[in-house]
Amino acid sequence: MRRILVALLGCVLGSAIAQAQTFAEAPFGPPQVAGTIADLRLDEISGIAASRRADGRYWVHDDSGNEPFLYALDARGALLGQVRVDDAANVDWEDIASFVLDGTPYLMVADSGDNAATRGHYELVVIAEPALPLPVHARVAPAWKLRYRFPDGAHDCEAVGVDVTTQTVILVTKRTDRPQVYSLPLRPRGDGEQVATRIATITAIPKPTAAERALKLNAARYGHEPTGLDIDPPGRRAALLTYRNAYVFTRADGQSWAQAFTAAPALLRLPLLPQAEAIGFDREGRSLLVTGEGLPVPLLRFDPGAPPTH
Questions:
Q1: Is residue 146 within 8 Å of 126, Cβ to Cβ?
Q2: Which residue from 25, 106, 179, 309 has the highest number of Cβ atoms inside 10 Å of its Cβ?
């Protein structure tokens, strides 16, 4: 009975969103379960990114307070190995991005979380993507770090993406009244602290009603809060995850990301996950993967195609 009620609640919430907001046509079909993540080391996944070295391989990490490890998964969510990131502390790792710059594949880990909004600065740690298979006790040193702050005080940020075409890092805040979009240079000059630039406010994501906030479900109470972000390799689409759904913003020819994030996104409805925290395009930028915290947790896959008609 409880499962039935949860499923019905998901349908009600999805219907309310559809009625309240007009969205662009979805470029993906309904989600499929690609696999299940069940390894005990991965009970707090808060970011996922596709390998730029091999198809069907993904990198994930755990949330705050865990060791600074990155974990490699196959396309079904099975653990392939782990690597420790030297000279980095997992204060509050909240997202990961993968990209290729000057022929080298990289991973960027975002130490950007700040639930209480008390941190004075944040850090992005970039490493050259390790080759698979990983040796036992694998370690990797940062290629560079990017220390930054926001111009208007501390912000919790769980959604970070990289656009190599503009050499820009995009950050979307979580706990603001409306999600705020900021940008940073991917390779700033010098090692000094950077100040993020606010470029847009996202108004398309509906905020929960008072009744929804009273429910003891993250998807209902905090459904509008972004928890993950990824940008496809061509730098055309940004997939933004919330506890409730995912939204795909498309950057047309001649548009900036500021313009793209203020336009109507496409809506991807999620089944009710315990805590949706991680979203990433596959290596080709065609499909989307979604997962989150808790064990066992499904690895969802959105493939290209038309959404179902109702």
A1: yes
A2: 179
